[in-house]
Hints:
By secondary structure, the protein is of the alpha/beta class. The protein has helices spanning 28-43, 65-70, 75-94, 110-117, 154-163, 169-174, 187-200, 203-216, 221-236, 239-249; strands spanning 4-9, 12-17, 49-54, 99-103, 106-108, 120-123, 128-130, 166-168, 180-181. The chain has 2 domains: 4-196, 2-enoyl-CoA Hydratase, Chain A, domain 1 (Alpha-Beta Complex), CATH 3.90.226; 202-249, Orthogonal Bundle (Lyase 2-enoyl-coa Hydratase, Chain  A, domain 2), CATH 1.10.12. The strands form 2 sheets. Strands 1-2-3-4-6-9 form a 6-stranded mixed beta sheet, with helices on both faces. Strands 5-7-8 form a 3-stranded mixed beta sheet. The longest helix is centred in the N-terminal third of the chain and has 20 residues, at 75-94.
Amino acid sequence: MPLIDFYLDSQAAIITLNNPQAGNVLNQKSMEALQAALGLAISNAEIRVIVLRSSGDPFCLGMDLAELQSMEQDYAIAERTIALYVELLSSIYNAPQPVICLVQGAVKAGGVGLVGACDIVLATEKASFEMSEVILGLIPANVLPFVYSLRLPPQKLRYLILTAKKITVEEAQRLNLVDEVILETEMPQAVKAVIKKLFRASPAALAETKRFTQALFGKKTDQATLLAREKLLEMIKNPEVIKAIRAFNEGDTPPWFGKYKPEKPLVIQGEA
Length: 272
């Protein structure tokens, strides 16, 4: 059984963490496979949405402790593992397509980084989150760039790291780590509804939304407004945008307006 399962379905790339018996932990093999799947999805111009999920509970329990222990004998393993993790989260965060994360179980340590790097996080009532690195004498340094201020407020993030507190999905939503909490029985319909909305949007506009929000991060108001004006003027010159506006005004749909009709279930149920 592969550590990472990957397939395409109706212009969506479905990537599954497929080793729940071992906690879907992250090691060199699983991260290389996950990065390869992401690369295939990102490079495919037909793919409009990427879905990251797990085949059961837990979602991901972080780094493989056995591999971490082996780093004592071979420092090169540490360098490679850390580099793979950073590359993986960067690929998710910078992907031109929206990346939807489906969380149906426990998330710990490095798994929080996987979730935090995604654009849309949907979680069931069974989900929980914990950054427990300090117990091992570490800190979630590689996680922080993808959650610090972006998803979690700085002081609350510091509190969660210092105490290694396990939080419920409801608290994770209040803190903005999770976008929607959905009953497990309702998750298939909810995910499909989100993807249908994304399929109505221009793929170029979705990609630009991700790029532009990154560009705005940390900018002062006058800098941000200048960037905004320049960006809108640039986009309004695009003939495809003008065609879409004309079509909408005439009661028609833009050329990128697509329909999502998956052949396989989006949510794996009954595996926990």
